[in-house]
Amino acid sequence: MGSGRVPGRFRLLELLEAEHAAMPPGEKLYCPHPGCSCPLLRPSNLWPDEPSECPACHRTFCATCLTTGWHEGFTCAEYGQLSADDRSPDTASLLRLGCSRGWRRCPGCRALVEREAGCNHVRCRCGARFCYACGKEYLSARPTEDNVHGTPGCECTLWHGVVD
């Protein structure tokens, strides 16, 4: 190697590194998948509801928030607010289904609840009481003049939005 010649594959790597270093910081990103981290050029026309594919590892990710896999049905902000447990593909799929069918999550145990009939008062299997119309927890279970189930933590009426 004393002749000053650089083998082809090392020269290619040098060219790629130089090209990558010349890219403006806002235009470059790296594949978020562990074990890959391929340097990429950020697309100028990112579609918020379309996954990107890494050309090196061929796995999908969101080029906007760099989430591995894909958060279909959620914006980046909505997905970012989910707990780590809720980000699994199976749970995220179930949450999308529940959202499309108007189900609510219990504020106590976070279980999905589907109301089949009746008023907006829900008593979950964990014991939490909440308003099905808005999801806010009841402040008290003591019956009032307006609500036999107690005092809701919202302004919704007991029969607000109920269609039977």
UniProtKB/TrEMBL annotation:
Keywords: Metal-binding, Repeat, Transferase, Ubl conjugation pathway, Zinc, Zinc-finger
UniProt-listed GO biological process terms: protein ubiquitination
SUPFAM superfamilies per record: RING/U-box (SSF57850)
Every RING-type domain range: 1-160
Catalytic activity from the UniProt record: [E2 ubiquitin-conjugating enzyme]-S-ubiquitinyl-L-cysteine + [acceptor protein]-L-lysine = [E2 ubiquitin-conjugating enzyme]-L-cysteine + [acceptor protein]-N(6)-ubiquitinyl-L-lysine
Family matches, as InterPro entries: E3_UB_ligase_RBR (IPR031127), IBR_dom (IPR002867), TRIAD_supradom (IPR044066)
The keyword Transmembrane is annotated on this UniProt entry: no
Domain of life: Eukaryota
GO molecular function, one term: ubiquitin protein ligase activity
PROSITE patterns in alphabetical order: TRIAD
Enzyme Commission no: 2.3.2.31
Record protein name field: RBR-type E3 ubiquitin transferase
Organism of origin: Gonium pectorale
